[in-house]
Specification:
Helix content: 25-40%
Distance between the termini: 33 Å
Order of helices and strands: HHEEHEEHEH
Low-confidence stretches: 1-13
Radius of gyration: 15 Å
Strand content: 15-25%
Structural class: alpha+beta
Number of strands: 5
Length: about 160
């Protein structure tokens, strides 16, 4: 088996990649990262180590999944559940203005970690200069969760 084959296998089939920090966090193998309450067993939520807003969380599937560009229409339900978890964690942390949030994914090749992860940022109105660039709507490097769902539905309709 070629050196990269195991990694490709993990990305395409789901599962666990021991080199992936999000796989390790999801399995509680990174003691420095506290998992937040999550209503779905197949998802975990935790604070971003480099917060771009007063509330900045990541919602991550427990099973290793590739980045958002690898998703298909059948993944729409998991993206929607990731958004539900994001809204719930904001509400549990006393943030109730869900119109002042930004939820989305970095679009390849602008992903620092290839494991699918939803950024949940709030209040979006308080994003700093750099964060406004990094999590910019309608950019080449960031796609909102709603835009991703729309794109997946459109691709499904076209095929």
């Amino acid at each position: 088996m070629a050196a990269g084959s195991a990694e490709v296998e993990a990305v395409s089939s789901g599962g666990y990649d021991g080199k992936c920090v999000f796989c390790r966090i999801a399995r509680r193998e990174e003691p420095g990262t506290a998992l937040l309450p999550c209503e779905y067993e197949d998802l975990v939520c935790f604070r971003d180590i480099r917060p771009g807003a007063p509330h900045h969380y990541l919602v991550v599937p427990v099973e290793h999944m590739g980045n958002c560009k690898t998703l298909k229409a059948e993944h729409i339900p998991i993206v929607k559940r990731m958004m539900e978890v994001g809204k719930a964690v904001l509400q549990r942390n006393n943030f109730s203005d869900l119109n002042d949030t930004r939820m989305g994914f970095h679009w390849p090749p602008f992903c620092s970690i290839s494991h699918l992860h939803l950024h949940v940022l709030a209040p979006a109105s308080q994003l700093g200069f750099l964060s406004r660039l990094i999590y910019r709507v309608n950019s080449y490097w960031f796609i909102t969760a709603e835009q991703l769902i729309e794109r997946l539905q459109t691709e499904n309709a076209a095929s």
